[in-house]
Design a protein that fits this description.
The complex is a heterodimer of chains A (605) and B (394). Helix content of chain A is 71%, strand content 2%. Chain A has 605 residues and is mainly α. Chain A folds into two domains: 18-233, no CATH class; 336-573, no CATH class. Helices cover 46% and strands 18% of the residues of chain B. In chain B, strand 3 (117-122), helix 5 (126-139) and strand 4 form a beta-alpha-beta unit. The chains are: A mainly alpha (605), B alpha/beta (394). The interface between A and B is large, with 91 and 84 residues.
Chain lengths: 605, 394
């Protein structure tokens, strides 16, 4: 009992270190920086090189890490943030993802993909507390976390530069008018955030004696959860959130089992946010104005093309299997159509309604599992399941999301990420129904009236047909009264409410329709893969679908499909690059956004 | 924005878009035209035989794909030095899939459409591999899974084969090692909660109970887990006399290290997947005295193993691990089948079923059984001593 409490505190200590960094960047830069985890990883590798290769003692190694990762932070700012600063903070989500992708892949090439041991040069001294131990490193991490938090606090509240940083975070335009050099402030914030990320990467690497190129992702997930629990931008809150998270996890391992650990962390997050939408420690009861709420992708210049082009492209896409005998491009495009369907459905939430959702994979998983279970257990034919499963998935999806719908902006985004993850964790743990980690195999191929559709051309046409239905329904919806209500919520929630739009109700309609088509995509994939497991549709998929609509342009079905085609076909078309493939992918992503920062196709409003 | 700037940005965006679309089109175009089968037999006789490899070279599982490649490179070098397959050179195309089920079907179609590909090796994880299996099965192209232990993997059809065991031999052997040879009666089993870990654990626990041991803790952990203190505390409180790890080497090393922090100092017995130089590199002193049983061990005195290990060390300057060994075996199995039965796709499938006494590193002389997996694996008990895996002779 006490031992588990101690375990919770020890791991909470590590979460706190990451959470402080994340909460600080949010406070000073107002963006959730998706490259944070990659800078964290690079910091760990810089420290590893200093300690394992150069045999430096810890303190100079830490200084090198601080300098090196601050430089990386600056580089990220110059390449992926500053050129897009005027285009709003959502585009930064995408450009920082791309920057992170480039760094992760470069790290795999430079240092190799395997895990490296990072032995702590600190004394191996430890003392016993009950049945557990606390080591010198644990205390060192605690001191580092609290120490840097204090330093940052002093900087922000006691220095002129800190003043400028705070002013810029509050209102960039106003700060600019008051003579603050906002570009320098932005550089400074990212350098500091980078230094902090690198330090936490090094210390967490030392704790686990273990670093690897993709280590950033899971660490920042925990850090973000802790920061959100405490309230974004609030340092004492982040520390408290981290310990609460650690202790909850330790006890859920004790009482429920280790597989429930992350599920309980998500339940904790949602439970806290329902009662305290701004986190555990929040000064104001009112919701803060969120930089992303309402300004999801500012308006840009729509791409004009002749009226006949769209029907022409559609017809030629439909006729493509007649001319193309090679199944490879057909398969790539068939997958692109299914992802196009996911993107179109996500667009209803994120483009039209302006709510960032990072949990779309959850809906896809729901649809896939519903159909796999209905067809293999209850013997439902595919044609019926394609209709029934999405309804089922949408109903469950809305029920799960409903408590989260009163959250806004980043809080909603992170919570949907948690929900998406929760759905696959339920699939993992509910073995009686889902067969747990074994997944469901031998799912029948799609087919109608006893005729299976197995040829690449058949799959292609089926996916394209379902995509067209999805586009048509979403298009009709967004042209209707409903679409106007959803757009009103996006532009101004308060004003929308004043006009009698029930926010939670309309958001659940948007989520419901969106979940329906995402689930339909899941049904198609489950039957064409023939095997699904809890890790078939991952968080990476949610991010990728979001990337598609940001690239394609907000609130625009054509853009969403184009985004899907580009992002699915691009990595296929640059296969000849081998390991460098995803570096070029990231560069091209940033390049495309550099020229169309509001997305390739964006709708005129 | 001035009209001039706007004009230029428009030009740039148009040109950028055209660059991207050209890339997309050329890729489809190239692969669309390059697949015309060569009907002239004379030409075919000179052209190389190609094996398609579908696996992770980037992403979370990249390190396993890299190990595969080292094993495959060595196998091909040896085969081609001995005249190749039926007088033709043997080559491979490694397509990176990140072990992602959205990319493996596309790669499968690419291989299927390419008449030069005689057979396919891969993919790594179950979701990625099994999403591609129906495509290989329908097209009649052999998919040889080299790391696929999922019990349903080979059930998709008669073109789906595997040279890895589905754990029905590994897990019971480990149970016998722990219960009979080490005489442990109260076992705490921690397993990686994936299809592999779950299957292995069930087989292990079944056998251990049959041999009279008691399983006091049986806990799965998530694949991205790093913090094992809570689960180890739980195991410690159940008072076991042995800790059983159904883990890969990365998480196995983490568990072994964190054991000390909660004061759990029982014997550790781990499944053969921990066998890797990485396990010792990452675990250090904490993995001293860990018992395991593997199908592959470089110190194995069998001549085929010694020959492989020496060749591998010469080629790559390091010891092979089990991932490079299965990949090496996979290529050599296909080469032996093609040499005897021909390089036609169907002939390879038939050959896999009829060939007897294949030369393999992991199994010695081996044949495929009715479940399309290699039969009768052999195991060696090992223990970590002084920072090395050593043969253990009880």
């Amino acid at each position: 009992m006490w031992d588990q409490l101690l375990n919770g505190l020890v791991i909470g200590n590590l979460y706190a270190l990451t959470a402080i960094g994340i909460t600080q960047i949010y406070g000073v830069a107002g963006v959730v920086n998706f490259a944070h985890g990659s800078v964290y990883m690079v910091g760990a590798y810089i420290g590893w090189m200093a300690i394992a290769w150069l045999h430096w003692p810890l303190v100079p190694a830490i200084l090198l890490v601080l300098a090196g990762s601050a430089a990386i932070g600056l580089l990220v700012e110059r390449a992926a943030v500053r050129p897009f600063a005027r285009a709003g903070s959502t585009i930064l989500l995408l450009t920082t993802i791309a920057a992170g992708l480039i760094m992760d892949n470069a790290a795999q090439i430079i240092w190799g993909p395997q895990t490296q041991a990072l032995r702590s040069p600190l004394p191996q001294w430890q003392f016993k507390l009950g049945g557990g131990t606390v080591s010198f490193l644990d205390l060192f991490i605690l001191a580092a976390g609290v120490g840097t938090a204090l330093l940052l606090h002093l900087f922000l509240y006691r220095s002129r530069a800190g003043w400028a940083v705070r002013a810029t975070a509050q209102d960039r335009e106003a700060a600019l008018q008051m003579g603050v050099d906002v570009n320098r402030v932005s550089s400074l914030s990212f350098a500091m955030a980078g230094a902090f990320a690198g330090l936490s990467g090094l210390l967490v690497g030392l704790y686990f004696n273990n670093i690897y190129p993709t280590m950033g992702a899971s660490a920042t997930l925990k850090g973000t959860t802790a920061a959100l629990l405490g309230g974004l931008g609030n340092v004492p809150g982040a520390i408290l959130g981290a310990y609460v998270l650690g202790i909850t996890e330790a006890f859920s391992v004790e009482w429920l089992g280790s597989s429930f650990r992350n599920l309980m962390a998500i339940v904790l997050l949602i439970g806290v946010l329902i009662f305290r939408p701004n986190g555990l420690i929040s000064a104001r009861r009112a919701l803060n104005p969120e930089p992303t709420a309402g300004t999801f992708i500012p308006h840009g210049r729509p791409l004009r093309f002749p009226r006949w082009l769209l029907p022409a492209v559609t017809v030629s896409a439909m006729a493509l299997p007649l001319f193309l005998s090679n199944p490879y491009p057909l398969q790539v495009l068939a997958i692109a159509w299914v992802f196009g369907l996911m993107a179109v459905s996500l667009n209803l939430i994120s483009g039209t309604t302006g709510q960032i959702s990072l949990g779309h994979a959850g809906f896809v998983t729901l649809g896939a599992y519903a159909s796999a279970i209905l067809t293999s257990r209850l013997g439902l034919p595919f044609s019926l399941s394609l209709l029934v499963s999405p309804f089922l998935a949408a109903a469950i999806g809305v029920l799960l999301c409903y408590p989260a719908l009163r959250l806004r902006g980043q809080y909603l985004a992170i919570t949907t990420m948690g929900l998406g993850e929760a759905i696959s964790l339920i699939a993992l743990n509910w073995e009686g129904v889902t067969q747990g980690p074994l997944g469901i195999s031998n799912i029948q191929p799609p087919g109608f009236f006893g005729y299976p559709i197995v040829s690449p051309a058949g799959m292609y046409l089926l996916a394209f047909a379902v995509l067209l239905i999805g586009v048509w329904v979403v298009h009709r919806l967004s042209r209707s009264h409903l679409g106007r209500a959803l757009r009103a919520m996006r532009e101004d929630e308060v004003a929308a409410r004043a006009f009698g739009i029930g926010l939670a109700r309309y958001k659940s309609i948007a989520f419901g329709v969106s979940a329906f088509f995402a689930a339909a995509a899941g049904v198609l994939l489950a039957h064409s893969y023939s095997y699904i497991a809890p890790d078939t549709f991952t968080f990476a998929l949610s991010i990728q679908v979001l990337t598609m609509i940001i690239l394609g342009g907000r609130d625009n079905a054509v853009g969403a499909v184009a985004g899907a085609v580009i992002l699915i076909a691009l990595p296929e078309s640059i296969r000849f690059l081998g390991e460098f493939r995803f570096i070029l992918y990231g560069l091209l992503l940033i390049g495309m956004l550099r020229f169309r920062p509001y997305g390739l196709f964006n709708s005129a409003t | 924005m001035s009209a001039r700037v706007r004009f230029f940005s428009r030009i740039r965006s148009v040109s950028l878009a055209s660059v991207v679309f050209t890339l997309l089109l050329t890729s489809c175009g190239i692969s669309g035209t390059s697949t015309t089968p060569s009907d002239s037999a004379a030409q075919e006789a000179k052209s190389p035989v190609v094996i398609g490899v579908s696996g992770p070279l980037t992403g979370d599982n990249a390190e396993y794909g890299k190990q595969w490649r080292k094993g495959i490179d060595l196998a091909l070098k040896e085969i081609n030095a001995n005249g190749g397959v039926k007088g033709r050179k043997l080559e491979y195309v490694f397509e990176d899939t990140q072990s992602d089920p959205k990319q493996t079907p596309a790669v499968a179609q690419k291989f299927v459409a390419d008449s030069k590909i005689a057979a396919v090796i891969g993919d790594f994880s179950s979701p990625a591999s099994m999403a591609a299996s129906p495509i290989y099965q329908r097209a009649g192209l052999v998919q040889l899974g080299i790391t696929n232990s999922h019990p349903d993997f080979t059930n998709t059809g008669d073109y789906i084969w595997s040279n890895t065991s589905n754990q029905k031999d590994d897990a019971p052997y480990l149970a016998a090692l722990a219960v009979q040879k080490l005489n442990k009666k109260r076992l705490a089993v921690l397993y990686l909660n994936t299809d592999w870990g779950k299957t292995t654990t069930e087989l292990f626990v079944g056998k251990a109970k049959e041999l009279g041991a008691e399983v006091v803790v049986q806990e799965g952990y998530l694949s991205n887990e790093k913090d094992f203190r809570p689960i180890l505390t739980k195991a410690r409180d159940a008072n076991p006399d042995a800790l059983i790890l159904i883990s890969y080497y990365n998480d196995g090393a983490l568990i072994a290290q964190q054991r000390d922090a909660v004061g759990l100092d029982t014997t550790v017995v781990a499944i053969g997947s921990v066998y890797s130089p990485q396990f010792i590199k990452l675990g250090g002193e904490a993995v001293e005295g860990v018992y395991t049983a593997t199908r592959f061990y470089p110190g194995d005195p069998r001549p085929e193993v010694q020959r492989f290990v020496q060749a591998y060390q010469k080629e790559h300057n390091e010891d092979p691990d089990s991932f490079s060994a299965v990949a090496y075996d996979g290529v050599r199995i296909l080469a032996q089948v093609m040499e005897q039965y021909g390089t036609d796709r169907k002939a390879i499938r038939d050959g896999l079923g009829s060939i007897k006494d294949l030369d393999t590193v992991l199994y010695g002389k081996a044949s495929f059984g009715p479940d399309r997996r290699l039969q009768n694996p052999r195991f060696l008990p090992l223990v970590v001593q002084n920072g090395r895996f050593e043969l253990w002779n009880p």
